[in-house]
Specification:
The chain is α/β, with parallel strands linked by helices. 44% of the residues lie in helices and 16% in strands. The chain has 2 domains: 159 residues, Glycogen Phosphorylase B (Rossmann fold, 3-Layer(aba) Sandwich), CATH 3.40.50; 151 residues, 3-Layer(aba) Sandwich (Rossmann fold), CATH 3.40.50.2000. It is built from 14 helices and 12 strands. Helix 4 links the parallel strand 4 and strand 5. It starts with a strand and ends with a helix.
Length: 331
């Protein structure tokens, strides 16, 4: 079976789905980096030559692909969650706030044959923000690959780590700015921000950072794994999370998570971390101090939760079922 795999980014979870589907299907990958009308021929040809369309996120790019699939009576699987479902005006985040993007994303969701999301939070958000009935969206957790095999035995540094793209929107949405400000209250702890620098946000962060803050910029996959192995605490002080892949990856390496209760973070962390009531610097400081005092058994507990709750094989099986169902519905 031929799958036309459309996405607008190359995040780790997108790559993982592509690899999972490639194990059973012929997957043609299309990175839709341009808005209409750029790439319109590639959309048409890709859909025409495929049996099923598989898209990540409801956006302009997936809209055109799904519209063509509907015209050609081809099945279309659409994964939603994150910016396409969010309505977060205080952080300037989400298609569902207003404007044409809101209606384009909703139309794409309505045209799709099978809708999938990756947390119960996003499943509820689809109904509340986009008017998609809860029962029409399948919830399939992301799979989190385990590169370690067991709890890393690397000595832990007094390090608090956060991972994310460093840009203006993420200063607030991902809690990067309060994370950096919290460092001043814990001068004996190394605070590390890993992530590509996308705009002038890095200049702002440097202007407010204390000496114990390190900004790495973009790092390789191996370097990121090393940071996960070394860090004692992983912080995700977000206002919104559709899943929280970096949190899960850090827990798999044995980091104690410090998170807010925003979005899906409680689904990922469960009772294996420390929660902040709000993403402000003092609360982050207090939570990091608590996490640093956690025993080593908590690290094992955090790791085991990710291994148990988010296996790759389970996602593979359920995604393949989505593909088969999308095909059968349009036969």
């Amino acid at each position: 079976m031929n799958i036309f795999f459309v996405h607008s980014g190359d995040e780790s979870f997108v790559k993982l789905d592509r690899e999972l589907l490639s194990a059973s299907f012929n997957v043609r990958d299309y990175h839709a980096a341009h808005k209409f009308p750029a790439g319109i021929r590639q959309y048409w040809r890709g859909v025409r030559e495929s049996d099923v369309l598989f898209c990540w996120f409801a956006s302009w790019n997936s809209f055109w692909a799904i519209l063509f699939a509907r015209i050609m009576r081809k099945g279309a699987v659409l994964v939603i969650g994150g910016y396409d479902l969010a309505n977060l005006p205080e952080a300037g985040y989400g298609h569902q706030r207003r404007g044409l993007g809101k209606w384009v994303s909703r139309f794409a969701m309505q045209l799709a044959t099978v809708l999938v999301t990756f947390s119960y939070f996003s499943q509820r958000e689809a109904e509340q923000n986009a008017g998609i009935p809860f029962q029409q969206v399948r919830m399939i957790y992301l799979g989190v690959p385990d590169p370690y095999g067991s709890l890393p035995q690397t000595p832990r540094a007094r390090m608090a780590l956060t991972v994310g793209r460093v840009d203006r929107p993420n200063l607030k949405r991902k809690g990067i700015e309060p994370f950096v400000r919290a460092a001043a209250y814990l001068p004996d702890v190394q605070f590390v921000v890993v992530g590509a620098w996308a705009d002038d946000a890095i200049a702002h962060l440097r202007s407010i950072a204390s000496p114990n803050v390190l900004f790495t910029g973009r790092v390789s996959d191996e370097e990121l794994l090393d940071y996960y192995r070394q860090a004692s605490v992983y912080v995700q002080a977000s206002l919104h999370e559709g899943f929280g892949m970096s949190v899960a990856e850090a827990m798999l390496a044995g980091c104690i998570p410090v998170v807010t209760r925003a979005g899906s973070l409680p689904e990922v962390v469960g009772d294996c971390g420390v929660y902040c009531k709000t993403p402000n610097p003092m609360e982050i400081t207090q939570a990091v101090e608590m996490a640093l005092k956690e025993p080593s058994t908590t690290r094992e507990k955090a790791r085991e939760r990710i291994v148990r709750q988010f296996p790759m094989e389970k996602r593979r099986v359920l995604l393949e079922q989505c593909i088969q169902d999308a095909l059968l519905i349009h036969l």
